[in-house]
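in:
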């Protein structure tokens, strides 16, 4: 159930509010989107709300990266051990990695440019859309939320910031893979040894192949939750402004002026 019925005359909508989250169009910097795709294939598309394409690229990145040992080779190259980096690389998988990595960057940039054009057209049309929906399992509505809280919760646990602004699918996705990365990288075990003062053992238990996934994943969670909180607030204000204008601006309020004020 929602508070909007389409007349089938609208060409474009700025947003869609469902029980699983709010999907909306807004202006994006194509270079930032391309940068996130370069940091981790799939993230640029997720920022554009292109979820199926983003999840496909994300899963492909994890599969091919692990099979080619790319993260492990990066760690060796960062420490100056170039020969070891060459040895751990699997060329059959590495050559599969290059074309899809370039495609992710190119397609996210191209899509963000196109979606900016669609947003400008949708903004000009300013068609009505549902701002409230309720179902058997969940309820969602437009509301203003604090961007700083989205950042704080994302820092505590990646995915909680998305849950705060009701992006349920992205929140489950982000939290699930964060647990996966932390578990296989032995990060918490290393933290445990670090608290005991055993620095060498803490370093040895870490798995760099899985550890290098975490910085990009955590950074994406913070950025995505912050940007979408800001844009959701703008969408809420836009919807409220249009509602008040259509319902109340037509009535002319006459303010009485006293004789003394005229003099």
């Amino acid at each position: 159930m929602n508070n909007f019925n389409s007349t089938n005359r609208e060409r474009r909508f700025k947003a869609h509010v469902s029980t699983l989250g709010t999907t909306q169009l807004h202006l994006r910097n194509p270079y930032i989107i391309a940068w996130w795709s370069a940091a981790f294939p799939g993230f640029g598309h997720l920022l554009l709300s292109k979820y199926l394409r983003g999840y496909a690229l994300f899963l492909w990145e994890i599969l091919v990266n692990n099979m080619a040992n790319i993260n492990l080779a990066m760690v060796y190259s960062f420490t100056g051990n170039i020969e070891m980096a060459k040895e751990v690389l699997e060329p059959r998988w590495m050559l599969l990695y290059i074309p899809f990595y370039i495609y992710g960057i190119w397609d996210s940039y191209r899509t963000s440019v196109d979606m900016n054009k669609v947003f400008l057209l949708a903004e000009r049309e300013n068609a009505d859309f549902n701002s409230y929906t309720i179902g058997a399992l969940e309820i969602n509505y437009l509301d203003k939320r604090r961007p700083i809280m989205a950042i704080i919760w994302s820092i505590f646990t990646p995915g909680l910031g998305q849950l705060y602004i009701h992006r349920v699918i992205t929140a489950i996705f982000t939290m699930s893979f964060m647990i996966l990365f932390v578990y296989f990288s032995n990060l918490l075990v290393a933290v445990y040894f670090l608290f005991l003062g055993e620095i060498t053992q803490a370093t040895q238990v870490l798995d760099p192949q899985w550890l290098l996934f975490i910085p990009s994943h955590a950074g994406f969670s913070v950025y995505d939750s912050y940007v979408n909180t800001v844009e959701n607030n703008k969408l809420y204000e836009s919807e409220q402004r249009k509602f008040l204008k259509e319902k109340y601006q037509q009535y002319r309020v006459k303010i009485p002026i006293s004789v003394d004020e005229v003099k």
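note: The radius of gyration is 24 Å.
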